[in-house]
Amino acid sequence: MTSGTEIRASAQYFPKPRFFQGWSCVIFGKSSGPEFVQETYTAITYHNKSPDFYEEVKIKLPAKLTEKHHLLFTFYHISCQPKQGASVETLLGYSWLPVLLNDRLQTGHYCLPVALDKLPFHYSIHSPEKVPSQTPPIKWVEGHKGVFSVAVQAVSSVHAQDNHLEKFFTLCHCLESQVSFPIRLMDQKITETTLEQELKLSIICLNSSRLEPLVLFLHLVLDKLFQLAVQPMVIAGQTANFSQFAFESVVAIVNSLHNSKDLSKDQHGRNCLLASYIYYVFRLPDPQKEVVKSGNQTELLRPRLPTSRYYTFGRTSAMSVGSKLLQSRVISCSNPDIAVTQTAADEEVKNIMASKPMDHSSSRMSFCVEGTNDMPSICASPRPPNKKHFHEELALQMVVSTGMVRESVFKYAWFFFELLIKSMAQYVHSIEKQDNPRRSRFSDRFKDDITTIVSVVTSEIAALLVKPQKESEQAEKINISLAFFLYDLLSLMDRGFVFNLIKHYCNQLSNKLNSLSTLISMRLEFLRILCSHEHYLNLNLFFMTSAYAPVSPSPSLSSQNSSSCSSFQDQKITVFDLSAEYRQQHFLTGLLFTELAAALDADIEGISKVQRKAVSAILSLLSSHDLDPRCSKKEVKIKIAALYLPLVGIILDSLPQLYDFTRRTGNTEEEQESAGAINQNVALAIAGNQLNLRSFGIPLVSLPYRQSATLSPDTTRNLLICFLWIMKNADQNLIQKWIADLPSMQLNRILDLLFICVSCFEYKGKQSSDKVSTQALQKSQDVKARLEEALLRGEGARGEMMKRCRIPAGNDRSVGLSENLRWRKEQTHWRQANERQDKTKAELDQEALISGNLATEANLIILDMQENIIQASFAAECRDNLLGGVLKVLVNSLGCDQSTTYLTHCFATLRALIAKFGDFLFEEEVEQCADLCQRVLHHCSSSIDITRTQACATLYLLMRYSFSSTSNFARVKMQMTMSLASLVGKSPEFNEEFLRRSLRTILAYAEEDADMQATPFPIQVEELLCNLNSILSDTVKMREFQEDPEMLMDLMYRIAKGYQTSPDLRLTWLQNMAEKHTKRKCYTEAAMCLVHAAALVAEYLSMLEDRSYLPVGSVNFQNISSNVLEESAVSDDVLSPDEDGICSGRYFSESGLVGLLEQAAELFSTGGLYETVNEVYKIVIPILEAHRDFRKLTLTHSKLQKAFDSIINKGQKRMFGTYFRVGFYGSKFGDLDEQEFVYKEPAITKLPEISHRLEGFYGQCFGEGAVEVIKDSAPVDKRKLDPNKAYIQITFVEPYFDEYEMKDRVTYFEKNFNLCRFMYTTPFTMDGRPRGELSEQYKRNTILTTMHAFPYIKTRINVIQKEEFILTPIEVAIEDMRKKTQELTAATNQEPPDAKMLQMVLQGSVGATVNQGPLEVAQVFLAEIPADPKLYRHHNKLRLCFKEFIMRCGEAVEKNKRLITPDQREYQLELRKNYGKLKENLRPMIERKIPQLYKPVIKVHSTRESFRSHSFRKYDAQTSSQST
Q1: Where are the beta strands (DSSP E) in 82-237?
Q2: What is the DSSP letter of 9?
Q3: Are 1345 and 1424 within one domain?
Q4: Which residues form the DOCKER domain (predicted)?
Q5: 1460 pLDDT exceeds 80?
Q6: Confidence class of residue 1240 from pLDDT cuts 50, 70 and 90?
Q7: If you ran DSSP here, which 8-state letter would residue 727 be given?
Q8: What is the pLDDT of residues 930-957, one digit of tens each?
Q9: Most exposed among 408, 1008, 1332, 1463, judged by the fewest C-beta atoms under 10 Å?
Q10: How far apart are CA 713 and CA 1400, in angstroms?
Q11: Between vectors from CA 1333 to CA 1330 and to CA 1334, what angle results, nearest 5°?
Q12: Alpha-carbon gap, residue 286 to 90, rounded angstroms
C-alpha cells in the first residue's frame, strides 16, 4: 500500500493525481531527483492492514494563500502479482487538509477520514470531517472515522501562528487598508464600533504571546506599536488614542525578553534582540496622517486641530506627576535651584552656541551640527500643535508612567534612552535642523520632560542604593544608562541645558545619599562616561583662558588661536588650584577633579576601590588625549595640560596617602616578607641607608610622620603617571613661574613627590619566561589550596561554588559590579596567573622595552623638574632649604636601575650641582654626600663604558671640590672607604675588574689635573685609591665562599673584627652581616648584628655627651646578649669621635641608635624571641620619652603588647634552634682541620638533613667520594683516617645547665637563650661495644663550651673547652629512672589533660611487655645488696628513685581512670592489674634498706654535689683518702 501527496488550488478531480495546470512544482524533491516535484509518494508497505508511513514531505507554500489551497492525499493498493493486462495500482480513496482555516495556517496533529468515492465538487473549502451531505452520499472508510494520521509543521516568516499576534496584525491591517466592516477574525466578527476596543485588547494581550513567534516578529510588533503611539486616527467619528496602551505593551515586551533565560544578553545585561532592533531596524514612524474610519471605507483627511498640544489624552496626568517629581520646571540655567523665567540664558555657555556651521563629526549617531546665532532659523518657529513627534510622545509616556510600568521603564532604562536618542537624531536629520542652533531644535515642553525624566531616574537610583546588594547592582546599571543618555544628548541638544541636567543629577544624588563612598562611586562612573565624549576637550573649553573664550563649543583644532597660551605668563599660582572659577569655566573636568579630591580626602571603609576608579578615569582621559591625532601638536598639548593643572595641587595635597615605593627591598615575595620585618617604623634611622644600593626607606622631607599609605600601589602609580604627563606637556615658562612663587614647604613636597616617582618607575628588567611560569604555577597552587579549604568549610561554600558553576558564560554581566566578592577575587587571580604563564618571549621582550622606555621618560621628566626647582631656588636665594631635597632625589635615582641615556644627563646635573653649590653640599648635606659616594662608586663598576666614564668624572669632581672648597677631604675619604666596603660586601652586580679600571681612571685624572699639581691633592688621591684597592682585595675573597654561608659569615666577621678601630666601617659590616642573615631567614642572628651595631653607637655617644636617658655603653645591652660586651673594646682606643671623619655617619646619633634598636626589635619579633623585644625597648623608651615623641611611644607600646600577647598565646609552642657539634678532620679543610664548632640550625632540623647538606657542599668542593661523614660520636683517632679524604663528624647536642642555673632558667625561652654549654652522650661498654646488658652499660657525657653564647652574630661558634664524665651502669640506671619519673609527672600534671599522652607513658612504665623496663632494672641492681660498700649510696638512690616512680605510677593510673571513655574500661583494668603486679614485685626491693647507710658518715666538703658534675668514683676516692 502507498499514498501520494499533492497541493491543490482547485476542486477538479483528475484520474491520475497531478497539480492544477499553471502551478509550478512546490514539493521539494529527494536527493536523487529534481529539486522540486509536483507530487511525491511514500514507500510501499507489505501485507499490513494498518500501515505506518514515516516519510517527511517538505512543501514550499505560495506567498499568497487562499481558502482553496489544500493538501490532497491519495491512497493506492499495489498488486504484487498483477493479472495480465491489469494495472499494478488500484485507487483506494482520498483525504485532504485545507492549508488555511479562518485565515490561519493549519498546523499540528490531525486524524483525517478517507473517502472511497470520487470527491465532491468544491471539497477543498471544507474539512474532511465537516463535508456537507452529498447526493449520492460519499462512502467513507469505517463510517467517516478518522483513520489517517498526519502531522503538519509550518516554518513561516509571514504567518505568526500565534492567536494574539495574528489578531494584532489583522487589526492593524484593517486600520491601514481599505476594508469593509464587519470583518471576520477567526471565529469572531468585528464591527466598526468594536474595532477600537478590540485593538486595545489585542495590544494588551501581545505580552501573552508565545516567546518564539514574538521573537520572530519582534521588529514588526514594535514598529506597529510605535506607529500607533504617534498615529492620530478617528474611528466611527471618535478620536482613538492608543499611545498609552502601545507604550505599556512595549514595556511589557521588553520586560519579558529580558526575563527570558533562553535569550542571550551582552556583557552589560542588555537583551541582544532589543539592542539589534534599535541599532539596525528602528526608524521614525511614517509621516503622520490622520486615519478616519467611517462606514465601509477609509478616508485620508487633513489633520484635525485639537486643543491639546499632544494629540493624545493624559496631559493633565502628566502635568500632575511632573509637578510632584520636580520642584520647578522652569529653572535657571546656571543654578537649577533658582526659579527664573525661561528667557534667562545660560551665561556659562552663552558663547558656545555659534561659530563653525558644519562639523559633521560632532555627533556619534547623526549629523547633528550647530549653526550660528546669526544664521536664520527655518525651523525655529513653533511646530503645528497637531503633529505628534515620536521622541516627544516617548518622553511623555516615560514621565506619566506609573506602577509596574514605571518600574520596568527604570529597570530597562537603557532601551528607552537609546530609543529616545535615535528618534531625536533621526528627527533632527529628517527635518534638516542640523544647521539650526541647538536651543531651537527641540520644544520647551520636550526639554521639560527630559528634565523630569533625569530627575525621576536620579531619585530612583538613590532609592535603590539604600536597598540590598542586588538592588545596588541595578542602581549601577541605571546610573550607567543615564550617563550614556546624557552623553548622547551632548551631541544633539543645547549643551548648556545638558550641563544643567548633569549639575542637577550631582546635587540631587548628594542630597539623598548618606554613604560617601557610594555617592562618589556613582558620580565617578557617571562622569567617566560623560568625559569619554569625543569632544570632551571642546566641551570643557580647554582653549580658554581668563581673558579669552571662543564662541563655538566644537571648533576645529587648526582654527584655534595659538596665541591664547601667551596669557599664561600673566597667571599666578591659582591656575594650579581647583577654584570656583575653574569649575565654572571647565565644567566636566571641574566635576571630575572635585570627585577625585573628595575620594582622596575620605578616610572610610571601602574608599580604596573608589579612589582607584577616580584615578583610572583621569588616566584614561590623558591616555586618550595622548593617542588622539588631533592633539599631536605641541601647542595643543600645552593647552590640554593647562586644563589639568589643578590635578597637580590635588596630588600634592594627597602626598601623605601615596604608597611609598621606597620601602620595598626586593621583587620576590620572600624578599618582601623578610624586608618587611626590617623596614617598619625605622625611617629616621635608615634615611638614605648607605648599606643598601637602593633606597631603604628614606623619610620624606616635608612629612614628619607617615604612618600608613591609604592608596594602593597601582592607584598611586596611575596618579603619578598623570602628574608626570602634565609636567611634561605643560608650558615650561608657566611651570617655572609657578615654582618661583611657591613657598619652600610646597617645593619640598614636590621633591618628596619626585622622590616617590623615582622609585615607582624603576626599571625592573626583563622577566624570564621560566620565572613567569613558576610564579604562575605557585599562584595557581595557592588558589587551588584556598578553593579546597572553602570546600571543606561546609555547605555554604560548596553551594556558593555550585551556583557559580551553573551561571552561563554569556550571562556573567556583573563582573564589574561585584568586585568585592571573595570568589571573584580568586577567579581574577587565577586568570591573571594563566595569562602571565601564556606570555611568549616576544611579549616579554615587548613588555621589557615598554617598561624601560617608561622608566627613562619618567626619570627625564623628574630631572627637568629638579632643574626647574634648582633655577628657581637659585634665583630666590633659598637653596639651603631645597638643595638637600634635590640631592636626595638624584641619589635615589642613581640607586635604581636606569638607562644609559638618563645616567648621562643625571651625572651632568650632579656635576653642575657640585660645581655651583659644593660648599653647601659638603658642609650641610653630609649624609647625602655619603649616599652619593656609594651610588657613584657603584656605577664605577658598571660594565657599560659610557656609564663608567660618567661616574668616574663625577666621583673625581666630588673629591676635587671637597678638597679645594672646604678642605674636608678626610670625610670624603672615609665615606668612599665605607661605600666600597658596603659595595663589595653585598652588591650582586659588583664587578671587581671594572671597578679597578675606574680607580685607575680616577688616578689618571688626578695626575693630569694641572691646577691641582701644586697641592697635596694628587698624593692624597693616590693614597686613598691604594687603600681602596687593598680593601677590594681583602673583601673580594668573600665571593669564593658565596655558597658556604657559615664560612662566608666567618669571613665577614673577621673583616668586621679588623675594623675595630674604625667604628664607621665596623658598623657597615655589621649591617652587611645583618642583611645576609635576613636573606637566609636567620632573623635572630640579624637582630644580634644590629644590637652589636647599636652598642657600638652607644659607646661613642657616651663619649660625646652625657645624657641620663642614653645608655652608658654596651654594658646596658647585657640583658639582650652577653656577647655585646665585646663592643666596649673601642672605648679604650685612641680614636675620638671628635676627630674629623670619625663617627660621622647618620647612625652615630640618637635617632640612629633608636632606628637600629627598633629594627632589631622587629627582627627579634619575627624570629619568635618576644622576651628580647622587651629588653630592646627598655633602652628605646627613655630616649623617646626624653624627645616627647608620643606618637612613637604609642607605636612602641603597641608592639610590646603584641609581643607579650605572643608569649602568652604561644608559650612552649615556639620552636627555637637545633644544635649540632660539627668536627672537621683532614688536611683538605685547611684552617678548619681538627676544629670543632657548634652549629645552630633551624628548628626541627634532623641529623640526616645537616649531614646531607654538609656532605653535599664539601663534596662539590673536594670532589665526589672525597668527603666522608663519621657516623658515631666517639673520639676520632686521626691516625686511622685516610689523609686523602676529608672527614666530618656531626653529633646532636642539647643545652646543658647546672642545677643552680636551673633556678634562674624557669621559662622555655630562658632554657633556649644565652647558651654556651652543650652536652651529648655516648653509650659504650668496657669491651668496646656501644650497647650491652644493663649491668654492662656505661655512658660518657661530653660537655662542650663555646667561645660565645647563642644566639650570636654567627650561626656557628668555635668550641673552646670540652669536659667528659663517665657514668657507671647503676648511675645510668638512676638517670634513666629519674627521666621516667619526670615524664610521668609531666604527663599527669599536664593542663589541659592529654589522655593519649598519659596512656602512652603509662604503657611504657607498667606494661607487661616492656623490655629492659623498670622491673628488669630493679632486678638487676636492687635484687641484692651490693658487696662493694662504694655502691651503697648508689643503691639507696636507685631505691628511692623506684619508690618515687611507683608512687607517680599510681597517681597516673588514678588520673587515667578519670579521663577514659566507656569503651576503655577494660584497658584501664589491665593497666591497674599491671600496676599492681609491678608494685608487688618491687615492694621487697624498695623496702630493703642498707643498715650501714644509717650509721654516722664522714661529711664531705664539696662545692658541687651533683653527680652530673662529679662522678661517684671521684667522691669515693676522696672518702677513702680521708679514712687513710
Answers
A1: 89-98, 100-101, 104-105, 108-112, 148-152, 183-185, 188-190, 233-235
A2: S
A3: no
A4: 1057-1491
A5: yes
A6: very high
A7: H
A8: 788 888 888 888 889 999 999 999 988 8
A9: 1463
A10: 55
A11: 105
A12: 60
Q: How many domains does the chain have?
A: 7
Residue 703 lies in a domain: no
**In which domain, by residue range, is 72 found?**
1-159
Q: How far is CA 1060 from CA 429, 1070, 1128, 1518, in A?
A: 90, 11, 10, 49
Q: Give yes or no: residues 186 and 120 share one domain.
A: no
| CA end-to-end distance (rounded Å), the chain | 141
Contacts of 644 (CB under 8 A, 6+ apart): 589, 618, 622, 722, 726
- List C-alpha distances in Å: 295 to 185, 195, 233, 237, 514: 19, 12, 14, 10, 63
Same domain, residue pair 934 and 908: yes
The per-residue pLDDT for 934 is: 84
819 with 915, same domain? no
**pLDDT at residue 778, as a whole number:** 55
The residues pairing with 148 across neighbouring beta strands, listed in sequence order, are 112
Distance between alpha carbon 1437 and the CA centroid of its chain, in Å?
A: 68
- Same domain for 1484 and 1439: yes
CA angle 315, 319, 322 (to 5 degrees): 135
Assess whether 204 and 135 both reside in one domain.
Answer: no
Residue by residue, DSSP assigns 513-580 as ---HHHHHHHHHHHHHHHTTSTTHHHHTTTT-BTTB--S-SS--GGGS-GGGGGGGGG--GGGGS--H
- Higher pLDDT, residue 274 or 33: 274
Query: Does 1186 or 705 have the greater pLDDT score?
Result: 1186
Percent of the chain with pLDDT over 70: 74
| β partners of residue 73 | 5, 95
Over residues 1011-1021, mean pLDDT: 84
Please report the pLDDT score of residue 811 as a whole number: 43
Helix (H, G, I), strand (E, B) or coil at 604: coil
DSSP codes joined into one string, 1255-1268 = HHHHHHHH-TTSEE
Nearest-angstrom CA–CA distance, 1035 and 1050: 12
The most confident of 357-361, 1018-1022, 1030-1034, by mean pLDDT? 1018-1022
Query: What is the side-by-side strand order in the sheet with 40-41?
Result: 40-41, 2-8, 70-78, 89-98
User: What pLDDT does residue 319 have?
Assistant: 33
pLDDT digits (tens, 9 = 90+) for 1462-1515: 888 888 888 888 888 888 888 888 887 776 666 654 554 544 444 444 444 444
pLDDT at position 782 is: 59
- Percent helix, strand, coil in the chain, to 5, is 55, 10, 35
Q: Quick count: other Cβ atoms within 10 Å of Cβ 834? A: 12
* Pair (31, 102) in one structural domain: yes
| Grid coordinates given for 879 | 637653596
Instruction: Pinpoint the alpha helices (H) of 666-821.
Output: 669-679, 713-729, 732-741, 744-760, 769-791, 795-806
Kindly give the pairing relationship between strand 188-190 and strand 233-235.
unpaired
Using 50, 70 and 90 to split pLDDT, how confident is the model at 567? very low
Average pLDDT, rounded, for the chain: 76
Is the same domain home to 1027 and 925?
Answer: yes
- At 239 the pLDDT is 67
Residue 891, domain member (yes or no) = no
Boundary residue ending a domain (513, 530, 561) = 513
Residue 1359 pLDDT > 50: yes
Angle at 1130 between CA 1125 and CA 1136, to 5 degrees: 145
Find out whether 268 and 477 touch, Cβ atoms under 8 Å: yes
Domain final position from 453, 484, 513: 513
Residue 294 within a domain: yes
The 3-state secondary structure of 444-460 reads HHHHHHHHHHHHHHHHH
Residue 1300 has pLDDT above 90, yes or no: no
Q: Which residues contact 1041 (CB under 8 A, 6 or more apart)?
A: 1047, 1048, 1051
